[in-house]
Amino acid sequence: MEITQRQGLVVWVYSLKQIKALRHYGTVMYVSRRMKYVYLYLDAKDVEATIGKLTKLRFVKSVEVSHRPELATSFGQASGAALDDEEDDDAIKARLDEVQARKGELAQTAGKTEGKTEHKDEGKTEEQAAAPEGVAETPQPAETTGAPASPTASGASSPRRAAKPSRNRRPSRQEGKSHAHH
Question: What pLDDT is stored for residue 105 in this prediction?
């Protein structure tokens, strides 16, 4: 028995209502309702004629040919230029040694800087002394005495706005009862 070559087509559609009509052109393998495309399988010899027919349909946006037959599906050692196991292991070990040596250097330099607590200027804090020279200090917030500097700073709106009721607010039950019809 001879195996016929099959080819996939991605058919992008405007509407999903006519999906049943696409069954006449090939086997419907998948339908994406969210992205509005249909994946069809058909014989490879009929691809060109079917693409011409599908593009003429009003509900078809576009047609793409699947590239799956072009992809290599054998993933063995012979398919790529892989390193020998010994060479690969040696490269990994060398890189691991480099990383560990770098970690050791960083730990030593961090230990040296942590031990120093004396500063040139006794009035500086630890954060100020740790900052590099030439970098502007970040302003510290002023202490408040309890009263906000401005009404907008505390989150309160202006008194004019506070007196005015919101237009979008629903009336409460008690407000609604006074207007109820008996």
Answer: 80
The CATH number of 6-70 is which of 3.30.70.260, 3.40.50.300, 3.40.50.360, 3.90.226.10? 3.30.70.260
DSSP tag of 19: G
d(CA 107, CA 90): 26
3-class SS string, 9-75: EEEEECCCCCHHHHHHCCEEEEEECCCCEEEEEEEHHHHHHHHHHHHHCCCEEEEEECCHHHCCCCC
Ordered by start, the domain boundaries in the chain are: 6-70
Rounded distance between C-alpha atoms, residue 79 and residue 70, angstroms: 15
Q: What is the pTM of this model?
A: 0.41
Q: Please tell me the distance from the alpha carbon of residue 148 to that of residue 25, in angstroms, as a whole number.
A: 75
Q: Which of the four pLDDT bands, split at 50, 70 and 90, describes residue 90?
A: confident
Q: What is the mean pLDDT of residues 75-90?
A: 61
Alpha-carbon distance values, 132 to 126, 127, 135 (Å): 12, 10, 6
7-54: pLDDT as tens digits: 999 999 999 999 999 999 999 999 999 999 999 999 999 999 999 999
